[in-house]
Amino acid sequence: MLRIPVSSTNVNSIGYANGIIEVEFNDGSVYQYYGVNESVFRNFLNAPSKGKFVHYTLKGYGYQRIK
């Protein structure tokens, strides 16, 4: 999945495709969050804290570590 680099102390890049948000963290781990609509991804892109957005919003969705 194509990811967009972001400015964050925890998150390196994020991407969206077909209801999945993919997050690459600065430690190199990559997680996919399932069943997410595009408006949530846009909110993620605009969130002042990407790490807090993951913790408070994305962890409410199904997810798995892929790397």
Number of domain units: 1
Structural class: alpha+beta
Strand-and-helix sequence, N→C? Answer: EEEEHHE
Strand order of the largest sheet: 1-2-3-4-5
H/I helix tally: 2
Q: Kindly state the number of beta strands.
A: 5
Tell me the β content: 35-45%
Q: Which descriptor suits the 3D outline?
A: globular
Unreliable sequence segments: none
The end-to-end distance, rounded to whole angstroms, is: 13 Å
Give a concise summary:
The chain has 2 helices and 5 strands. It is of the alpha+beta class.
Characterise this structure.
- With 67 residues, the chain is an alpha+beta fold.
- The protein has one domain (4-65).
- 24% of the residues lie in helices and 36% in strands.
- The protein has two helices and five strands, in the order ββββααβ.
- Strands 1-2-3-4-5 form a five-stranded antiparallel β-sheet, covered by helices on one side.
- β1 (4-5) and β2 form a beta hairpin.
- The radius of gyration is 10 Å and the shape is globular.
- The model has no long low-confidence stretch (mean pLDDT 96).
Defining traits:
2 helices; 5-stranded antiparallel sheet; 36% strand; 67 residues; single chain; alpha+beta
Q: Mind sketching the topology for me?
A:
Elements: E1 4-5, E2 11-17, E3 20-25, E4 30-34, H1 38-46, H2 50-56, E5 62-65
Antiparallel strand pairs: 1-2, 2-3, 3-4, 4-5
